[in-house]
Amino acid sequence: MRVIFAGTPEFAQVALAQLQAAGHTIVLALTQPDRPAGRGMKLQASPVKHYALIHGIPVAQPRSLRLDGKYPEDAAAAQALLQAAQADVMVVVAYGLILPQWVLDVPRHGCLNIHASLLPRWRGAAPIHRAIEAGDTQTGVAIMQMDAGLDTGDMLLVQSLPIASTDTTGSLHDKLADLGGKMVVQALAQLDTLVPVPQPTEGITYAHKIEKREAAIDWTQSADSIVRRIHAFNPFPGAATLLAGESLKVWAASVSDAPPPAGAVYGSIVALATDHIAVAAMNSIVNIAQVQRPGGKRLAVADFLRGCDVQPGMVFESAHDVPEAH
Length: 326
Description:
Low-confidence stretches: 321-326
Structural class: alpha/beta
Number of helices: 8
Order of helices and strands: EHEEEHEHEHEEHEEHEHEEEEEEHE
CATH topology of the largest domain: Rossmann fold
Shape: elongated
């Protein structure tokens, strides 16, 4: 098939590679404009753009696709490209721009979207983060025929995937990206026979975009909730806390079976072990296993403790408005 691909991050690039490997002709790749990133804030191309350039796929980076929006010249140029591409279908994966109706109408078979959740649960921008944060035990991928709504289109394929207690957004992202790529290849192969199924009207939830301010660990919460947030915010934005006035990112943790000592202050260190720091939370203990100091690299707790004077009784505090640990 002649495919227009619209996507930006690594999650999308995985699907693009699988579509090309399956023999489809990628006639155009739409992706977000280059953005400043890294310590030097130099302009960086998206993973989709990197892949497309290496494989000789034409790339377009409109700032908007709205013909009546802020950048009508970008939208008009994109419209000309899309119409000239004579595509059979458009595959959209974490693109980052709203698609007006005119875009949905261009390809012969419309636009298919890979969404990393079991719709209608976790419509929106951050379904992987929110599923882990909420303590969901399963998630999955939906291949959806796009309409003008926010992740509201009829579903062509759905496949579930268990969420392990040790999964982070990073690990689950990789599993779902691979699954999504395989499923969209399957959907294109069966496009003439698949029957679109409307999404259920019950169980709708929204996965709102992750904000950096959410990363501050609140030690008055339950240990389960804290550990879920640590996993959900790995690798972005990283769960943050303060110890002796210094910002720390916490990258790995687990819930202890032991209750906190009577009278223990929330956030206080109740024990030190070779592989973890035991911290009191609302109803249990959080065992911190991996941390990162500002400007440093991720460290196992054993390595961190060798370089810091950390003692039982010290208290982790909320890290609102603290510098990032890069």
